[in-house]
């Protein structure tokens, strides 16, 4: 089989150009006599790779100077613990409360993990609506003095995406940091980092390989940790050591750096947004006009990255997936908690991939409708 | 430059065969239409890679059935916190003591991190001897009721290695688990896992890329965690989810799996031990007979993996390193805390690499002695 169109939710498809370059450099990076995987993280070669990756990411996302870019490990699930461990240290026990807005499987997990370290106030939840919509900020019931407010701005499993940024100042909490899990849509479009205290995400959707966690933290939040926070996960320590307090996942950072360069060659995040919008419109447009398939998420918040959809006749699911596989359309099965299908169409998915999927949707509808 | 001999302490040289195979499979693994980095960790392709890696490692190390192999993240430095968080939960505050044997920079860090979670008793330390020897077990002053006893069986920075296994039963503590940081010599020779409660290590020396932590835990120790232990680092959760509670570092596991297969093709750990012994004897033999170089570690515990050495005339250090680099002998500079030089000669370093190093040592001695 040649390269297929891979709709995995993560780890996910990477640009072929990136993988090609990585393959070519595997045994000898730029004449160094060794591959990137074999380099001391403190040697000049890897230091240059790390510095370039940080600079490119800072440029792509227009990260303000008062924010630090941290490369960590453990994915968003580990960071769900690392966040409260880093943000609650300045508060006495009785003031350890954090607010969570629950909009899908990922924010459910985030708030659950935070309960190890603090009281959690669920400011809003759409669980009763099966996570098919976003609660407007007017619906939120924030607590009076939360240490932070947490949102997941794109729910990978439920396919719900924020196209607006919460405003805690408007809610009377101007000094409370907004913390966002951006794992599955970061770099898909421009983002105003200055609206957040912390953004974080696993790399394995839009950035690079799994095993790398990206955390971007505002300076004043670096050093509020609880004593139980492991040193390797203390943001200030990570920042002061330029993400090298412990040995970083060097190869994953290298691949992420190649992705950042690829994004720059493609015109940056505004260009990616245009392409991602076109891809999502093509796919949702077809699904909306079909009586054979259906989607569940409200139109104003359906994700451009993760598109869950269903066959009206679910007995055809296996036939659908087998046919997709035959046509080189891979990993379309929906998450077990939602069922049906899910097409994840991250940056690395070209328009042709979505076109091929829509062609198949049409063909399958014709032959089974 | 073609492939050099890379003496990095870690991330370290990998077998060229492994990198070659990884490069060939980068865009399309076994006809899957996608590379390993792009596979869902829950798909059949990656599941087979993971299962094979675990089975091969179990075979290589003869891991007993009552031990679980966990693939984690954060390296040994993170695990230094994860260990006490996992082993102290069954004890009330006043019984939270752990014993540490301090034999170099790594065990210094381990005991320091543990103090976040428990009282630490330093059972022995060779700091006064600048970590150039190992304290015999008869020198240890164990506490009466430690939750565990921690050793680092190969100190990467100081070049000190245990060639014996501590015996806690003989010390009157038959039920206390022995915990060992084996980062920098695991897989260099056979190891009797049954003598330990937990062994752990970062992969980036003898296993594969950085960003992967190997933890092997006896069943009865899986579920003793403190409430503050993040779920993603709770051994029982990791074990029950087959190292996939959070998205594992899939590509690092794949490379580790290729290394395990390479080790099996080479004859397993007994064969590696013979080769590693020959390499170490060649290098130490030359250094011992030279009046130009010196080593500092006692002969009965000098590491076969990490060989720190010094030029008597340290003003020649930079000239030495520049000449080495010209000859394709890379990353020989010693750790800043020890100074001088360090040759790390892990499994992937062939005998020819050590021969080339000794040839250079001789040549440099002749021209500068």
Automatic annotation (TrEMBL), chains A, B:
InterPro entries assigned to the protein according to its UniProt record, in alphabetical order: Aminotrans_V_dom, Aminotrans_V_PyrdxlP_BS, Pser_aminoTfrase, PyrdxlP-dep_Trfase, PyrdxlP-dep_Trfase_major, PyrdxlP-dep_Trfase_small
**Highest taxon, organism lineage:** Bacteria
GO BP terms: L-serine biosynthetic process; pyridoxine biosynthetic process
Residues that, per the record, bind pyridoxal 5'-phosphate: 106, 156, 181, 204, 246-247
Look up the record and report any one GO term of the cellular component aspect.
cytoplasm
Q: In which pathway does it act?
A: Amino-acid biosynthesis; L-serine biosynthesis; L-serine from 3-phospho-D-glycerate: step 2/3; Cofactor biosynthesis; pyridoxine 5'-phosphate biosynthesis; pyridoxine 5'-phosphate from D-erythrose 4-phosphate: step 3/5
Q: What class of enzyme is it?
A: transferase
- For L-glutamate, which residues are the binding ones? 42
Residues annotated as carrying N6-(pyridoxal phosphate)lysine in the record are 205
Q: Is the keyword Transferase assigned to this protein?
A: yes
Instruction: Output the Gene Ontology terms for molecular function.
Output: O-phospho-L-serine:2-oxoglutarate aminotransferase activity; pyridoxal phosphate binding
Q: Which SUPFAM superfamilies match?
A: PLP-dependent transferases
Catalytic reactions on record: 4-(phosphooxy)-L-threonine + 2-oxoglutarate = (R)-3-hydroxy-2-oxo-4-phosphooxybutanoate + L-glutamate; O-phospho-L-serine + 2-oxoglutarate = 3-phosphooxypyruvate + L-glutamate
Q: Which residues form a coiled coil?
A: none
Per UniProt, subcellular location reads as: Cytoplasm
> What Enzyme Commission number(s) apply to this enzyme?
2.6.1.52
Name the Pfam families on file.
Aminotran_5
| Keywords, comma-separated and alphabetical | Amino-acid biosynthesis, Aminotransferase, Cytoplasm, Pyridoxal phosphate, Pyridoxine biosynthesis, Serine biosynthesis, Transferase
- Residues forming the Aminotransferase class V domain are 5-357
What cofactor is this protein dependent on? pyridoxal 5'-phosphate
Q: What does this protein do?
A: Catalyzes the reversible conversion of 3-phosphohydroxypyruvate to phosphoserine and of 3-hydroxy-2-oxo-4-phosphonooxybutanoate to phosphohydroxythreonine.
Subunit comment for this entry? Homodimer.
Q: Which family is this sequence assigned to?
A: Belongs to the class-V pyridoxal-phosphate-dependent aminotransferase family. SerC subfamily.
Its protein name is Phosphoserine aminotransferase
The lineage, from the top, is: Bacteria, Pseudomonadati, Pseudomonadota, Betaproteobacteria, Burkholderiales
